[in-house]
Each structure stands twice: as C-alpha cells, then as structure tokens.
C-alpha cells in the first residue's frame, strides 16, 4: 500500500507542476506580418522616366564634361528617342536632333541610356523623346 501511495503522490505532484507551469505562461499575442506593398505595374509614367534620367544625370553630364575639356565652347541640346521594353531595358535609342554637333557626346549619351534599368512596364514598349541640354557650369 505504501508503494501505491508513493505513486499516487508522485502522480499528483507531476500533474500539479504541469498545471502550475502552464498557468504561469502568458499567451503571446499573435501579430500578423505586415502586408508587403505590391510592386507597381502598368506602363511607366513620365514622372518615373524623368526621375530615372535625373537620378543618372551625372552619367550624361560626364559625357559632356570630357568633350568640353577639349572644346571649351561646347554646348547644346541633344534630343534622343529611345524605347524601354516591358522588362525595363532600353532596347533602342537614336539621336533625332542635336545642336551640339559633337558625335562623341551623342554616342556617349546613347551608351549611357542603354545601361539604364527601369522597372517593368506595361505589355508594350514605352517610347520616349527626351532633350539633354548641356551648358558650361
């Protein structure tokens, strides 16, 4: 009988300690994860395109600065027509007019355009006509 009392006491102590442990635990509130902002879709806006060109202005300016060091009176405007594919890459670009008359600056600007990356756009290419104006600082 002593043995069964000992088992009974051990069983009660175990149950009490399990209850005490679970009772002392406080429920942790579940906080839902923030919903990520979905990526922007649809055609590129003029503001997005202009913003990307402005953000990369130093690349275009360096094209001009290199040639201006050789030709101090160099200045003018280069108008470029370029296409941005749906994947965000520039797939074609050409100078449509230039008052600068400096092929090195014109070709450098085109090279820099081909290196730009835009966000994915709509289902078709976005065609842009953009003037690049260069003057001495």
What would you say this structure looks like, in words?
With 137 residues, this protein is an alpha+beta fold. It has a domain at 46-134: 2-Layer Sandwich (TolA/TonB C-terminal domain), CATH 3.30.2420.10. The protein has four helices and three strands, in the order αααββαβ. The chain has a three-stranded antiparallel sheet, covered by helices on one side. The longest helix is centred in the first third of the chain and has 23 residues, at 2-24. The radius of gyration is 34 Å and the shape is elongated.
Concise overview:
The protein is 43% helix and 20% strand.
Spell out the key features of this protein.
TolA/TonB C-terminal domain; alpha+beta; elongated; single chain; 137 residues; three-stranded antiparallel beta sheet
């Amino acid at each position: 009988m002593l043995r069964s009392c000992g088992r009974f006491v051990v069983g009660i102590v175990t149950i009490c300690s399990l209850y005490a442990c679970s009772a002392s635990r406080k429920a942790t509130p579940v906080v839902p994860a923030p919903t990520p902002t979905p990526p922007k879709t649809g055609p590129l806006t003029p503001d997005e395109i202009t913003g990307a060109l402005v953000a990369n202005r130093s690349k275009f300016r360096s094209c001009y600065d290199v040639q201006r060091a050789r030709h101090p009176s160099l200045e003018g405007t280069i108008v470029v027509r370029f296409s941005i594919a749906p994947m965000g890459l520039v797939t074609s670009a050409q100078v449509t007019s230039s008052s600068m008359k400096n092929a090195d600056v014109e070709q450098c600007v085109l090279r820099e355009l081909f290196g730009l990356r835009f966000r994915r756009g709509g289902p078709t290419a976005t065609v842009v006509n953009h003037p690049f104006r260069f003057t001495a600082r």
